[in-house]
Amino acid sequence: MNGNDWTNYIYELHHYMTKQEKMIEALEKRLHSLEKAFQEKSTNTIEKIEYNFDQLKIERLDGTLQIGLSPNDLANIEDFGVHQNQVPQNPPPLKQTLNSELSSYLHDNGPSIIRDLSKSYNYTIDEDFQSVMIQDIEKQLPSRIAFYEQEAMRNNKLTNEQDFKLYISDQIKKEIYQSLLNYIQTNEGKGEE
Asked: Fewer C-beta neighbours within 10 Å, C or N terminus of the chain?
């Protein structure tokens, strides 16, 4: 290499290093601005979280049993938001009574309803799965009681606590039957595998 080649090589190397230094400085500035933005953003607090439940489900790998509202019902119903400040720590006696009565109803009548429906639709359900279905429905009772309680409060025709309780109980019993019927009709003819 002669002197000119070395000069060009050193010049290009210097130019390349200068370019790399500028790129590193730009990346450092960007990193600092992102860190600053992240620190400012992480101080934000969540004031309120709302959950809206449209359907309740009994899930199993081979199917889903939905109880609650059908898509057609959603058009006729207002938005029901659950607000944390309105949820009592201990359920009132009416809710406890309804939950207890509906739980007993479910355990006493659930297996026979499932057997009758599965027999009518030629769908075999073993006792273990019946028990899973009943437990899943039972877990959903408090939220369904609260839903129908709100609905009953908007329906001013109910005059006393007994009518109020009977309305909620009847609605949930109908919902339990309808959801089991829908599940079995959906899986009709499949049987247990």
From this structure: C
Q: What is the CA radius of gyration of the chain?
A: 32
**Residue 133 reports pLDDT greater than 50:** yes
pTM above 0.85, yes or no: no
DSSP 58-88: EEETTEEEEEE--HHHHTTS---PPPGGG--
d(CA 82, CA 64): 25
- The residue extents of the domains of the chain are 1-44, 55-186
For residues 135 and 130, give the distance between their C-alpha atoms in angstroms, rounded to a whole number: 9
C-alpha span between 175 and 64 (Å, rounded): 15
pLDDT digits (tens, 9 = 90+) for 35-86: 998 887 765 555 665 655 555 555 554 555 555 555 555 444 444 444 444 5
Interacting residues of 120 by C-beta distance below 8 A, sequence separation 6+: 184
Distance CA 65, CA 76 (A): 22
CA terminus-to-terminus distance, the chain: 82
169 by Cβ neighbours in 10 Å (0-12 / 13-18 / 19+) ranks as: middle
Residue pLDDT, tens place only, 66-80: 555 555 554 444 444
Length of the chain: 193
Tell me if residue 56 falls in helix, strand or coil.
Answer: strand
